[in-house]
Amino acid sequence: DVEFPHVRYTEMTGKVLEDSMCLCVAACKRYVGNNERTAKFIKRAMDKRYGSSWHVVVGGAFGLEITHEQKNILYVFCHE
Length: 80
Description:
It is found in: Cytoplasm, Cytoskeleton, Cilium axoneme. This is Dynein light chain. One of its GO terms (cellular component) is microtubule. It comes from Ornithodoros turicata. The protein is α+β, with helices and mostly antiparallel strands. It has a single domain, classed as Protein Inhibitor Of Neuronal Nitric Oxide Synthase, CATH 3.30.740.10. Helices cover 41% and strands 11% of the residues. It is built from two helices and two strands. Strands 1-2 form a two-stranded antiparallel sheet. Helix 1 (14-30) packs antiparallel against helix 2 (35-50). The mean pLDDT is 88.
């Protein structure tokens, strides 16, 4: 079973943070082992709820360099 994500870094607060973390759990439960579908699910939901321009990366090994709007970043780690 997927645990609630552990926050590594965030600038998000309140409802957006709570909603984002719940989306991560729902996506991980729905698409177990399929990182691409998990990422698409989260991105589409975030774009629909909070406007486009969200970027979602799912996986265990990746490098990433991004710029972001203030209060619009969430980096979490989920255990399965």
